[in-house]
Amino acid sequence: MPRRIDTYLKDLIPEEKMDFYSVVRDFSDNEIAPMLLAWERDHVLVPDECIAKMGELGLFGLPIAEEYGGQGGDHTDLVLMGLAIGYHSQSVAITPGAAISLGAKPVQLFGTEEQKREHLPDLAAGKRMFVFGLSEPGRGSDAANPEVTAEKKGDRWVINGEKCWSTNARWASHVVVHALSNAGGSHAKRSTCVIVPMDAPGVSYQEMSGKRVWEQSSTGSIIFDGVEVPLDDTLGEEDNGFKVMVNTLNGGRLFIAGLALASLAFALDKTRVYAEERIQFNDKPIGRFQRVQDVVIDMDIALERNLTWLMHLCRLYDEGTLTREQAAKVKVDSSRAASDLLVLAMEVCGGVACLDEFGLIRHHNDLFVTRVGEGSNFALKDLIVRPLREQG
Q1: Check: CATH 2.40.110.10 for 131-239?
Q2: Is 147 labeled as catalytic in the residue annotation?
Q3: What is the pLDDT of residue 392?
Q4: Which residues, listed in sequence order, are joined to residue 161 by a DSSP beta bridge?
């Protein structure tokens, strides 16, 4: 089935980027889509073979410079990959997505030359995977105030506490821990990011059970019990972890917006085709009803509008001019529009929309994550409103 989203992308990105997107789209159609239902029914995470194939395709090294073994692309390429794979499964798309935007990206932006040469080649090849340890059992939206601590002991950090909702934890070689290092410091000068090997003494991981969203994605809880790592493994400057976190999440929010639009794109195609094939009432398709047409039209408008917006912000990110408010706005609006419209799409399709093989219920569940991931929409609105309250 042709993707409606492709019609819009052709006018928004250069030909070479469209060629790249098309390669990943075909990979998604041929290698991922046929396997999804079996993975879901067997309750398995993304298989290692699939991760290996994505690595061979170069997806883990998209924005990493060629000198470090990457593809030398940009953030737009990363978001295009999310659109191409997320069309079928956000769970699969977030695996390389988080590995780059939350794992490799902080090293790219803040790593020393030694850290880059040590980690980026293996990260680009998919042989190594970093997790960004941000959320905690007692800290979600208040991420700037971590409960996990990092205390100096000679030439080492001693880390204690727990991180949760850590995407890709099962496959992680290292975790970038955002930890409280200066309790008396100001809001932006009280935390430090530290690279911690997952096999370091005192580190333990457990897959979080009972999750009904992103079911093929690994989501783990990571505990640090007196974990010692050298001060040389500090990522960025000491007590400047807030800056690392903010810059990391900016790009991540664009990726999450892309996942929301990928789900919307799938729902649009599924619904518009079904509406013409579903025959009712005097042997005519339900697509002739104005109420059905309204849902399809609203999905199409939202997709074109937000995709155009997102591609523009990706360019700003690559130029280094994207603001926190801009990234937050597109994430909030894309996730909200996609999830609200998908419910209406399911109403149009009726009972069949509840079946796993139809696909809409998968996107319905996963779209919830886009509303709370990389900062909940409610918390981000508090960020967005600040410039509007300024006087003068």
Answers
A1: yes
A2: no
A3: 54
A4: 224
